[in-house]
Amino acid sequence: MRAILAGGATGGHLYPALALADKIKRRNEESEILFIGADKEVGAEIVGASGYELEKICARGFDRKNPLRNVGVLADLAKCGGQIRRILAGFAPDAVIGTGGYVGGPVVREAARKGYPTFIHEQNVLPGVANKMAAKYADEIFVAFEESRAYFKKRDNIKVTGNPVRRGFITAGAVNYREKLGVDGKSMAVLFFGGSQGAERINEIVSDMLIGVDQLRDMDIFFITGRRAYYDVSRKLTEAGVMEGGRIRLIDYTEAIHEYYAAADLIMSRSGALTVSEIAAVGRASILVPSPNVTNNHQYYNAKTLSDHGAAIIMEERALSPLTLADELLKLKANKQALNAMSKAALGQGKPGATDAMYGAIVERVGKI
């Protein structure tokens, strides 16, 4: 199979595409994969490190805060149409898959106009603008959540596949990561993180909570701060004396985050689409704090896919404080039965076969592996 994958500009768009690319290559080593990305996009480094070829186009996202800047964006959009057509003609794909963002939409549109089989994948409950526009050009639409159906005009070509997650999350139960990471016996272990780049408000609240609430000192804590905040958080906690004893493990960034998911009894995080899907894949109770800085509050709706099934507690940032967070943690610490029930409910929402489902649908449509 010759496949083009296009998406950007966040990891939420990129990682599902990489998971699908890896699946295609595992099934047929002779398959050829081409990624299309944007100029000056950080994701280019990730694609290159994964061993895939990348073509760049001049697409840019719209500036919602300053509409006057969008004159240049529209000019680049017109220009990138020609770039995409040249790439399509040169590569001659069997399938073109868009995973959202300002790159995926134009690529799917141009591919459909040239008669190539087209697919899109939407990671969030609320579809992004690019995918809603690209949906009319797609032969099939893959969505992560059943709730997404309501937001597309055409629904007879929608398949609920889930979000592809890295294999480490699916196989995490096969390894005793609690032992590997040094969790103390039957201690409650909690993972705090705000995404790969960290989240300033979560770092602040968790730090203040660990300093101010003595009842948490007998827990095993994994606290992923993001690289930019690591030094400041480390200094703050060290000066307060709470790092003594080794029960709090401070981490700046890790590619092996599935190990910390699996070692934890409870995860406190943002509710990006992939994070929610990863939590479900591992089957862990969670406290989810939707980012208030995203379009249409879409992280809240992602979080609801777990909270509506009793798998997560949603705490909106405006109501979050060191004391309110500590109160929820201590309630769960005292109620192991409730914690286990949340974990079981989360696992029930997992879709470990997401990548296989997408790959199977593409093969069925294009007739090639």
Report on this model:
This protein has 15 helices and 13 strands. By secondary structure, the chain is α/β, with parallel strands linked by helices. It has two domains: 179 residues, Glycogen Phosphorylase B (Rossmann fold, 3-Layer(aba) Sandwich); 180 residues, Rossmann fold (3-Layer(aba) Sandwich), CATH 3.40.50.2000. Strands 3-2-1-4-5-6-7 form a seven-stranded parallel β-sheet, sandwiched between helices. It has a six-stranded parallel β-sheet with strand order 10-9-8-11-12-13, with helices on both faces. Helix 8 links the parallel strand 8 and strand 9. It is elongated, with a radius of gyration of 21 Å. The N and C termini lie close together (5 Å). 45% of the residues are buried.
Draw up the topology in text.
Blueprint: E1 2-6, H1 11-27, E2 32-38, H2 43-49, E3 53-57, H3 70-91, E4 95-98, H4 101-113, E5 118-122, H5 129-134, E6 140-143, E7 158-160, H6 167-170, H7 177-180, E8 189-193, H8 200-212, E9 220-224, H9 230-239, E10 248-251, H10 257-263, E11 266-269, H11 273-282, E12 285-288, H12 298-307, E13 312-314, H13 322-333, H14 336-348, H15 354-366
Parallel strand pairs: 1-2, 1-4, 2-3, 4-5, 5-6, 6-7, 8-9, 8-11, 9-10, 11-12, 12-13
